Amino acid sequence: MRILVVEDDPGIAAGLQASLRQGGHACDVCTTVASAWGALAVEPFDAVLLDLGLPDGDGLELLARIRRQPPPQAGRDALPRNDLPVLIMTARDGVDDRITGLDGGADDYIVKPFDANEMMARLRAMQRRAHGRSQPTIEHGDLVIDPAAHTVVRAGEPVVLGAREFGLLLVLLQASPQVLSKSRLEAALYGFGEALESNAIEVHVHHLRRKLGEGLIRTVRGVGYFVPPP
Predict the structure, then answer these.
(1) From the CA atom positions of the chain, what is the Rg in Å?
(2) How far apart are the C-alpha atoms of 133 and 127, rounded to whole Å?
């Protein structure tokens, strides 16, 4: 997943970015409402982790703008921005604050300081809801994928995947049978400023086919890749 962290505390932002990247997600950090809105206008993020007390305004202003007037989609296969999962993370711990945030359009609300593992679990829960799933695992034919444990089992046998291979598999399975362009897959796996080889997606797809079978991921020449229904 491509996650936008909107947080002006450098220590918290760095910790979140490290946790998300360790979990196989691409992560970008913005420190203001204005920069976050600009990032949302040019990249197809899958979720937002949103602080409220920002230097140029309140995070609730950004949340309201996302829900009311989403920025232009960055690519034809991007998630519509007004449906973008948003998790508020703030020191505001009053009941009224939580009610205001949730009624304002947030999908979840967590109070600082929080445990990184709990934040990741809440993020996974939001993504399950966004993709219409209730089960913690994803099953596709003889594949069973556990996003929390970062495990893949094929026909009862565990398969070891690298972090980016695992991330690519998740993106394709969650979009199945939609065809995703190479640029959309790059955006899902790599944040701003991360080194990206021109053939990185092709290499990851090659490794997945070798480990999980040639028929799992299909190529539509000149368009992109997709996973057909099982």
Answers:
(1) 18
(2) 8
Instruction: With CA atoms as reference, report the closest residue to 140 among 175, 164, 188, 165.
Output: 175
**Residue 185 contacts by C-beta under 8 Å, 6 or more apart in sequence?**
168, 171, 172, 201, 224, 225
Q: For the chain, what's the residue count?
A: 230
- Alpha carbon distance 47, 84 (integer Å): 6
Rounded to the nearest 5°, which phi and psi values hold at 65? Answer: -70, -40
Please report, in tens digits, the pLDDT of each residue of the chain (230 residues total): 889 999 999 999 999 998 888 877 889 999 999 999 999 988 888 899 999 999 999 999 999 999 887 555 444 444 445 788 999 999 999 999 999 999 999 999 999 999 989 999 999 899 888 877 778 899 999 999 998 888 999 999 999 999 889 999 999 998 899 999 998 888 888 877 676 778 899 999 999 999 999 999 999 998 999 999 98
Whole-number Å distance between alpha carbons of 114 and 103: 22
* Six token digits for residue 35: 């920069």
- Residue 83 DSSP symbol: G
- Give alpha helix (H) positions in 82-133: 95-103, 116-130
Task: For helices 10-22 and 116-130, give the axis angle rounded to 10 degrees.
Answer: 60
